[in-house]
Amino acid sequence: MKQEFIEIFNARVNNLKHIDLQIPKGKITIFTGVSGSGKSSIVFDTIAQEAGRQLNETYSSFQRLFLPKYSRPEADEINNLSTAVVVDQKRLGGNARSTLGTATDINPLLRLLFSRFAEPHIGYSNAYSFNDPSGMCPECEGIGRIITLNLDAALDKEKTLNEGAILLPGFGPGTWQWKAYAESGFFDIDKKIKDYSEEEFNRLVYAEPQKVTVSYMNNDMNATYEGLAVKFMRQHVKRDKETSKSGEKLLKNFSTMTKCPSCEGKRYNNKVLSSTINGYSIFDLTSMQLDQLIKTLPKITSPEAKPIADGIMERLENLCDIGLGYMDLTRETPTLSGGESQRVKMVKYLSSNLTGLMYIFDEPSTGLHPRDVYRLNELLVRLRDRGNTVLVVEHDPDVIQIADHIVDVGPQAGTHGGEIMFTGSYQDFLSSDTLTANYLNRSAEINANPRPVSEFMESRKSTLHNLKNVSLSVPKGVFTVITGVAGSGKSTLVNEVFAKDFPESIRIDQSPVHANIRSNPATFTGIMNSIRKSFSDANGVESGLFSYNSTGGCPSCGGTGTVEINLSFMDTMEVECSECHGSRFRQDVLHYLYKGKSIVEIMEMSVADAVEFFDAKDIQKKLKALETVGLGYLSLGQPLTTLSGGECQRLKLAKELNTKGNIYILDEPTTGLHMSDVANILDIINKLVEKGNTVIVIEHNLDVIRKSDWIVDLGPDGGAGGGEILYEGPPARILEYERSVTAQHL
Ligand code: ADP
Ligand code: ADP
Ligand code: ZN
Ligand code: ZN
């Protein structure tokens, strides 16, 4: 068959330098290059964008109102696209009702299985759903947790009722609500709560509603007495009404979530829990670790049940294949990490039989230990072999080597990138003179001279999630890496145990910088004020003119650079403001210059260029910090909302470069980084340590592990098979430990 190609002509999205590109269809193409070089601009902002737009065009304008909006990417021509499926790291999200089982459609199949083959039958498949009134636990309505009054917040046990022991608003001494307690005759109002008998305390908190007589303006009046928690639940939790702002605040301050006492967190009602197949309830199966469930299911299903069980097994196999065997189906999707979310999405698509699609992945190796990368590779190959085109942005050498075709973007980032450096086979790539190939060819060395360690910080011992009663001991003032396969317990031990015991530790993660459309590197670093002052001093006018949030903003778009146009029966479209051409500034402001440049030209300048341009020491220092973390390619005015998770993390790091004596916790800081940028991050970490900080890094990247001072390796496996500490010590010695999979990969 003739090889077909996706063709792109003269693409100039973001930093792309008028590139032409041909990508073979039905193959795996991997995009490499330093971060900020333009890989995403090609794959997501050009290819996926145009594919989405073309698909939208096939719908009526009315239907399009309900679809995502795509504008035409800046390119002369893009031919031969297929429907794009973007499998990215956006969290799956969902709410407390969505679990791994509901998200992968395994729960509906299990429900079907139970509705046909369980003893006793309790109804149709709905009856086995915790999201359906007929299956849910009535107490928690299928959430598994309930909100209760936080007694520590609501009561001051050192006080008496007379002294105002009840801290809830509206219960102060003398108030009507207080009288119901103080004058009920149940309590000695001068006795401290901590001295109450168990019966008194239970009555105060948990008593069911009953009539009592209290005095009001010298008259006896009937009132209803009920325990404080009972009252709180009735007033604030069990109401169907919309909660008011103040009600919300009250809930936040005075309530806690606890496991539902009625179903013990299982979400189902008793009817469901006592309906079983071979002794297993649907909860027994969903709460089982996936690699266990996959062994159990075939043993308990009869031949008649096989067709349904097969559908479940296929999905389970895919989940285990991709390295998620340590999870169980009850895991709530909002608690999945970015990498885990991406792998779950991947499995959904693997179970579909569509062919001829274009699958687009964003660093699918994120969060995967080198041990599991080959499984990811197998899945990518399977997608291709089904007749799909697979496009992958990736930095991991073990993934790159499976490419049928490689596109390397460079040479550097931002305005210094945006060119195609290489296209061709992996073999030819290795002998190319590109930065990426140079790194792929180099041999790696283990840190033979780690910093000496003396003092340690040790957390409490914990059994949270899968931890086997272990504590984390971290040497002070050095660079420690926490390693182990996905699900081995790294995040639990570091973020849930250690960080809670050392609350002064500072977590620098990949969550978005709190930013709106108006924040950019200049505002984030705080140099915007100095820049405005430079302009106002040079021109003798007020500095507000040089802010698009102030008098300088373009009146037509309000300083946002875009306007929405609303055509009846057509999509609302965001288009560039025709007045300021997206520059956000009033046009007359552009006449004022500083060192020959207008404020708009300054905002378009890259951080690296701005370091050269500005003389002021404070501006230089802050911008240099951005350069140090590898963000020199950002323009001063680029909205922070366009930054990736890895870029956000490095932006936050830049703010910390001049501190000392802190404990930093970094979660996979190499995500999104090219091998050459990893060297950069290592420099930053070492600078932080040199300044007297302690740095703890959760990481799979072998280059980072090799260069650490101290390794804590968790394992041996994920989930129940993990949670032990296999090795603690300097990097060189880990090689002697055969049980450590990390050692095998070093
Ligand atoms: P990569 O995927 O190789 O890391 P990107 O394609 O994300 O690189 O970025 C290439 C360049 O385009 C960078 O300088 C980046 O800051 C810039 N860029 C990316 N997205 C936007 C955007 N929405 N608006 C303006 N500039 C952007
Ligand atoms: P790692 O960081 O090494 O990938 P984790 O600490 O995330 O490992 O997970 C360790 C174990 O704890 C896994 O079995 C995982 O499924 C479980 N786990 C992690 N977070 C949660 C959570 N929020 N709720 C329930 N189980 C969790
Ligand atoms: Zn319940
Ligand atoms: Zn405008």
Automatic annotation (TrEMBL):
InterPro entries from the UniProt entry: AAA+_ATPase (IPR003593), ABC_transporter-like_ATP-bd (IPR003439), ABC_transporter-like_CS (IPR017871), P-loop_NTPase (IPR027417)
Keywords on record: ATP-binding, Cytoplasm, DNA damage, DNA excision, DNA repair, DNA-binding, Excision nuclease, Nucleotide-binding, Repeat
Pfam families per the UniProt record, alphabetical: ABC_tran (PF00005)
Chief location bin: cytoplasm
The ABC transporter domain, residue ranges: 1-442, 451-739
Name used for this protein in its record: UvrABC system protein A
Superkingdom of origin organism: Bacteria
Annotated organism of origin: Cytobacillus firmus
Entry similarity comment: Belongs to the ABC transporter superfamily. UvrA family.
GO molecular function, one term: ATP binding
PANTHER family listed in its UniProt record: UVRABC SYSTEM PROTEIN A
